[in-house]
Amino acid sequence: MSRASMRCPGCGSSNIVDDDLYCQAQLVCADCGSVVSEGSLAEESFNGPDISYSRTTAVTRKPCVNLIQGLERVKEISRILRVRREIEELALTYYKQAYEHETFLHVTLQRKEILGGCCVLASCRQQRWPITVGTISCLLNGDPAAVGEVYQEMIKVLNIQAPTFSVTDVMEAHCQEYKVSPGHVPEELAEDSKGLTKRAIALVELAADSWIVTGRQPLPIMMAAVYLAWQSLKPNAQRLKMSLEKFCKLAKVQKSKTAGTRITEMKGMLYKLGKEIPWYKEVLTPDNVVSLVGDVLQHRFSLLRRALKSHELSLLEKCPAGQVNPSSAETSSSSDVSEDAGQTPVKSSVNAEKEKQGRDGDESLKSPSEESNPQTQELTQNWGKRVLFAPPCVVNAKRKRAERPPLHVTGDEEISDSEIESYIRTPQEARDFAMMQEKLFTSNNESS
Amino acid sequence: MDSSNDEAVDIIITNVVATFRTRCHLNLRTIALEGINVIYKPEVGKVLMKLRKPRITASIWSSGKIICTGATSEDEAKLGARRLARCLQKLGFKVRFSAFKVVNVLAVCSMPFSIHLVDFTKNNRPIASYEPELHPAATYRIKNIKATVQVFSTGSLTITGPNVQNVATAVEQVYPLLFECRKPLCK
């Protein structure tokens, strides 16, 4: 607009001049001083899309610090365990994937650390590097239950499959921890690591058949197996007298309390098999069975068969009326080769018929399936009493609480008043109760 | 493989959990004062009431929501819940029995054979999972009926599901899978 044509609205003069107020352009009438028009102080409003504050102030996006730390921790764990390069790299990939998933993105740092350990565990399992959950929880200094929880979630999130290990797989790594090789201890107490491992594995396989391994923590079983293997490889007086605690101190490992129970169970099992050795003339007890372990392991299949047969005979003697010959129909099916034992029952040519009855790869007999005989029915309920080896939960079966007779109700019956009255205090009782409560309360206050 | 059982397998229901609402506010102190077999837990804000027949324990909140546990069948749970509602009515509250729902059923069952859990897990990945160091049983989750079966190597099963029908279906579904992986000549 031309200044010449403008007129001041106040006085009508056309003497308008530019008189900027600092940075604001203003047109002012020179005669009366009124501002005719002014420019805007700031730019016109931005007509583009809204830009958030964080975007305008954002710097170049840095990778998450915790993710980097987590990856470093995974590397650390892999190096402590001395795993192969591929396992470490796989673990790092898994960690990155899992970390960025919503299930693990906003969890506590502790949980993220556990996640790191679980990634290592999963990759070790996939690459068949034997390691236990116990080892990982030790490294992370965490609760095995928490580790297990995070592990299950992670498996679901990443949609991977990681096969578990059996005790025998982890055995070799475990045996290496025991410092009883010739360099570390005196000659009489020393044992070659390979021989020790081999015997310990054989013991664990035998224990697996006798329900000692199923459902139990692996560490005490391994410790018990190593201890018995060590004792039995050179069963001299010194070794036999050494207790588990002293052995652990010697080997510089931490003793596990349940290992003692496992040792007793294994000795019991070895005793049952050792009884069948025909050339052992002295009295056998679970205590002096250790010296026979070598023989038992060498001839374990035939000893197992003999033990089963004699057990069957002893049962027949106890209750001759009820027993029926175990059906040989099942025996003809070849037994599943159990992973742990890997055994194939050897067909002995001697007395083939008897063999057929007693022949099996595992520990127990098929029960006579006749339900009519009440004695067999009772035995069916506690099959632990019938077979040679059974898990402790079955052998010492808890007596069932007296079963409540089942109420046959429909849910919509009438409810009589008298039934309900039995659940309500009378007014007098309620008053007494309230009084007593008050008295108790005041007496508590006085005494405290 | 004969999937229909030669010997019927007994499924024993050990616990049924149900919830319902009374549609009115409940004064927990009154219930604690005037009710027999009642335990008041002010720190949690609830009252535990135990009925004798059927044997049921109910957790009562002041909002009027009630959870009943301890029944051995769905009908028992309903009867117990109704009895409880009547009891609260007698105590003076304007109770309306509504929104009764069986929320969880727990049952146990025993197979006549032992099971090789490692084989079972291998055959049924990823529905089955087995971590021997964490828990001695293999867990089998059936998504469509929302049931979880815990399989022990002795052949015992523990089944949890939203109702009794689902629990029975779960056992039927899992039986043939267990039969495949049974340990030879056991029991």
Automatic annotation (TrEMBL), chain A:
Chain ranges of the TFIIB-type domain: 4-37
GO biological process, one term: transcription preinitiation complex assembly
Start-end of Low complexity biased regions: 327-336
Name of this protein: Transcription factor IIIB 50 kDa subunit
Top-rank taxon, per record: Eukaryota
Region (Disordered): 321-384, 396-419
Sequence ranges of Basic and acidic residues compositional bias: 352-369
Compartment(s) of residence: Nucleus
Molecular-function GO terms, alphabetical: RNA polymerase II general transcription initiation factor activity; TBP-class protein binding; zinc ion binding
Family to which this protein belongs: Belongs to the TFIIB family.
Keywords: Activator, Metal-binding, Nucleus, Repeat, Transcription, Transcription regulation, Zinc, Zinc-finger
Cellular compartments per GO CC: nucleus; transcription preinitiation complex
Bias-annotated ranges (Polar residues): 370-383
InterPro entries recorded: BRF2-like_C, Cyclin-like_sf, TFIIB, Znf_TFIIB
Function of the molecule: General activator of RNA polymerase III transcription. Factor exclusively required for RNA polymerase III transcription of genes with promoter elements upstream of the initiation sites. Contributes to the regulation of gene expression; functions as activator in the absence of oxidative stress. Down-regulates expression of target genes in response to oxidative stress. Overexpression protects cells against apoptosis in response to oxidative stress.
Gene: brf2
TrEMBL record, chain B:
Compartments, as annotated in UniProt: Cytoplasm; Nucleus
Main location: cytoplasm
Pfam entry (one): TBP
GO molecular function: DNA binding; general transcription initiation factor activity
InterPro entries tied to this protein: TBP, TBP-like, TBP_dom_sf
GO CC annotation terms, alphabetical: cytoplasm; nucleus
Alphabetical list of SUPFAM superfamilies matching this protein: TATA-box binding protein-like
Keyword annotations: Cytoplasm, DNA-binding, Nucleus, Transcription, Transcription regulation
Biological-process GO terms, alphabetical: DNA-templated transcription initiation; embryo development ending in birth or egg hatching; transcription by RNA polymerase II
Family: Belongs to the TBP family.
Protein name, as recorded: TATA box-binding protein-like 1
The species this protein was found in: Oryzias latipes (Japanese rice fish)
